[in-house]
Structure to design on (239 residues):
C-alpha cells in the first residue's frame, strides 16, 4: 500500500522484507524490477547506442496516478500488500528504474496484479524518457505495444 | 492560471511554466490550446493540431472538452513513456 517516486536507487531485498513484515496472510509475492536496457537503435544508415536516459515526471500528478492504479489493482484482486517505487532523474544502462511488488494469499492474484500494475503505469503515469546517444538527446516515443498491453486489462 | 509543459513540449515552447489569463470565452482545455497557440511560434508548434499530446487539469488527466472553471494548473505533455 505504498507508492514512492524518488531519485535514489532502491534495495529490492530490503523493500520486500519491509513489505511483508508481520503479514502472515501473504502466500505469494510477485515482483517486477525494470532496468535501463542498453539499446541499439537503427536509424537510417547510422546506429545509435543508448548509454543513459533521464526520466522526467510531473510531481504531484505522478504520485496520484500511481495511487489510483494501485487502488484499481486492489479492487480487482484480493491483495495483502502492494508497492510501487519509480525512479526519476538520470539513469545509466543497467540501473534499476522501477519496482512493483504484489503480495496476495495466492499466486495467481499476485502474478496478475503485478502485470496489470506494470502495464498500466507505463501508459497512465506521467513519466517521459529522454535518451542519450552518441549523436545527441532524443525523447522516447510512445509504443503501440504498451498501449495494447494496457488495453487488455480494460473491463469489457 | 498556471500552464505547464513537459518533455519535448517544454523545449519547443521555451518555458516549463507560465501564468496566463485567458479571455472569458476560453472555457475548455481545447479552447485554451487554441488561445495559447497564438502566443509564440514555439507555442504554435508544440500545440499544433494533429500533434500527439495530452492534458491534465489540476494534476488529473483531462480531455480537451474538460471545463476550465476553477482550474489552478493546466499541463500539456506528450504520451507517457515510463516504466
Amino acid at each position: 500500500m505504498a507508492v514512492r517516486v524518488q531519485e535514489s536507487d532502491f534495495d529490492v531485498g530490503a523493500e520486500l522484507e519491509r513489505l511483508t513484515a508481520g503479514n502472515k496472510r501473504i502466500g505469494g509475492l510477485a515482483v517486477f524490477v525494470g532496468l535501463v536496457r542498453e539499446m541499439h537503435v537503427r536509424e537510417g544508415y547510422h546506429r545509435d547506442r543508448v548509454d543513459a536516459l533521464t526520466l522526467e515526471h510531473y510531481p504531484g500528478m505522478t504520485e496520484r496516478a500511481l495511487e489510483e492504479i494501485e487502488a484499481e489493482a486492489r479492487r480487482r484482486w484480493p491483495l495483502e500488500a502492494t508497492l510501487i517505487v519509480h525512479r526519476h532523474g538520470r539513469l545509466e544502462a543497467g540501473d534499476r528504474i522501477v519496482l512493483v511488488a504484489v503480495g496476495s494469499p495466492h499466486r495467481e492474484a499476485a502474478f496478475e496484479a503485478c502485470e496489470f500494475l506494470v502495464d498500466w503505469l507505463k501508459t497512465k503515469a506521467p513519466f517521459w524518457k529522454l535518451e542519450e546517444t552518441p549523436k545527441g538527446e532524443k525523447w522516447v516515443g510512445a509504443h503501440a505495444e504498451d498501449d495494447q498491453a494496457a488495453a487488455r486489462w480494460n473491463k469489457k | 492560471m498556471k500552464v505547464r509543459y513537459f518533455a519535448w513540449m517544454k523545449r519547443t515552447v521555451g518555458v516549463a511554466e507560465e501564468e496566463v489569463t485567458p479571455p472569458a470565452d476560453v472555457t475548455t482545455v481545447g479552447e485554451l490550446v487554441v488561445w495559447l497557440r497564438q502566443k509564440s511560434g514555439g507555442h504554435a508548434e508544440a500545440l499544433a493540431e494533429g500533434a500527439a499530446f495530452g492534458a491534465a487539469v489540476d494534476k488529473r488527466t483531462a480531455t480537451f472538452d474538460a471545463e476550465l472553471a476553477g482550474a489552478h494548473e493546466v499541463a500539456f505533455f506528450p504520451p507517457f513513456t515510463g516504466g
